[in-house]
Request: fold
Amino acid sequence: MSVDGQSVTGPQGAVSPQPAFSQSGLGKAQTPRRAVVVGGNRIPFARTGGAYTKSSNQDMLTAALDGLIARFGLQDERIGEVAAGAVLKHSRDFNLTREAVLGSALSAETPAYDLQQACATGLETVLGLANKIKLGQIESAIAGGVDSASDAPIAVSEGLREVLLDLNRAKTLPQRLRILARLRPKDLAPDAPNTGEPRTGLSMGEHQAVTTGQWKISREAQDEVAYNSHRNLAAAYDAGFFDDLLTPYRGLTRDSNLRADTTLEKLASLKPVFGRNLGSEATMTAGNSTPLTDGASTVLLASEEWADQHDLPKLAAVVDGESAAVDFVHGKDGLLMAPAFAVPRLLARNGLTLDDIDYFEIHEAFAGTVLSTLAAWEDEEFGRTRLGLDGAFGKVDRTRLNVNGSSLAAGHPFAATGGRIVATLAKMLHEKGQVDGRPALGLISVCAAGGQGVVALLEAQ
Amino acid sequence: MNTGQPIILGEMPSLSKLYVNAAAGAARRRILGSPAEAALPPVGHEVRAVLADVANLTAYQHLVGETASDVLPAGFIHALAFPVAISVMNRDDFPLPLLGMIHLRNVVEHRSPALFTEPLDITARAENLRAHRSGTQLDVIAEVRGSGEDTARWRGVSTYLAKGVFLPGIDKASATVEEEEFTAPDPTAVWQLGVDAGRAYAAVSGDFNPIHLSVLSAKALGLRRSIAHGMYLASRALADVGAAKGESFRWDVNFAAPVFLPARVALDISTIQAEGGAWLRSDYVAWNPRSGRKHFTGSVTVL
Reply:
């Protein structure tokens, strides 16, 4: 295949699409049994430096976990496995998830592991654990993620670190003095984490500004995405949608970034913060980019048998997932464009098109990310030359996109976003039930640092 | 006797002022001598609508190893109620010297959880003045209610000893209790307590009793080094018991030998389960791993 991109049938080109729907629903044709989302729980997300300033990742993950345990009566329950992670992680937190389990009301005999795939961490924990359930290795699982930009790790400089390690190895006083003499004042400056890509030195926002310019996404279109996010999230809160998805923490009952009263005029008045030194017009503001946020989320997954035995709900099945990565380093694709490749592959494998999807959850890292992805899918040339299709991949019905708000309004504690979206979408699908005689379908797309993306398909149960 | 309604204090008493006043009271007592009639204050004290400070709560939870949830740990409530308790022991009609008192035993009934967002009414009173083989002991009873509620969610009984103080009208304790021989079990944990452990707990609990702060301030009160707060040790043990204890439990601790700082403290926690696996009780004992001397014992029991 002469495609300078990522053909939807994958590098081997040999994967034939499965029949779309069998009598028993999607996914059963390929897998021995289903993995279902029982429910979720998160704490409200807080803008950095706000209500969770003094709370550590372990504190927040445990709080989200304990809320989930209380909601589904899991006290003393031995769960098959718990997987979670954090993007900004202290080195002492190497066993973050297991420590959170030990501090929770779960049975201490519940195993746990940490996972890290930048902003896709949360969604990847869901997919990995769902696969274990489908394979029959475990019956129940809790997926999650947490991040604190407030309580971020600060490392010592490379110079000081090398001196300290060498000092530890030195045996004599003269050796120690020689090593100490290497220290320079600049070595005492701490090394704080940043959102820059190691290979390009550009921040995520600057990367997206390049992509946003390339796809000619207007300022107005981005502000509209942000406006809809706030309006939809506020409406969902007002309708009580999050009542069984959220536990208050440290005085917060709603995401502190949510501006229910924001207007397009207010958003239009903000000054651009990214892409000010690029050729194209700078369009990305603090309003249409997600702020740094603290928070945690969890999702309870199970086999149908386990859910039934425990008399627990089955909201949606985790049907399938797909990862993709792009070569962003020298600008072949935008840093956050990997989902533009992952989604076509995922849908093709399941014999679906964008028209079959009832709800789209496209993580709003930036409004420009969502719009660039949609623009790529609607672009004939991108479809032909990059996806190996006959023409454009398709058009997303905007009335089905992020209908209960997304990261621009809720905030985005990196690893916690996947769990937020999976629990939200599973509940929406369950409420929707059947569409035209088949279970409602939902698609999740999450972009991540390093030019990666993870996407997933959920089906109403 | 404790008959009347408690005296309502307008605000939470300041512990540092109480300690200064206690030092002055000790000097006064030295000059004037003890009162002829040995009796506890006839009234208790109450402070209403007390709110926990969330930053302080988080610091406390991190220090003792509690999960940083919105629920107030039982030991944190003790610290919250402590100034009210001390204000009773600092009254002019309190018959024993406050400074230098030894915390012998503490029993808490944690009946239902309180969140940091809830205003709490805190009462404290002194009761049960009685002899001890080496002085005089009494109980300070603190109760914590949700503001306006009738029944206490938390009730703590702290037993203190005024060593070497024998009051008129109180008989000497007759029999000395035979101490059981202690053989240290295998530890389930070993704590490394730095020389600053007392200052760290003082910062989160507000209990700046000089015996915990530094070698010098402890020596001024007759100790060879500073010692760890008993309630810090007991609170760490409670945190170590973990979430198994549920929302309502009884938590007791008996203090034996003080922990001189810095120290290594060995701990054993053993869990007793019902048939079927339900948690019934966790017993703990802590000792000096070098000398084998017992520091404290206690248990957390289902209520």
Q: What stands out?
A: The domain at 1-177 of chain B is CATH 3.10.129.10 (Thiol Ester Dehydrase; Chain A).
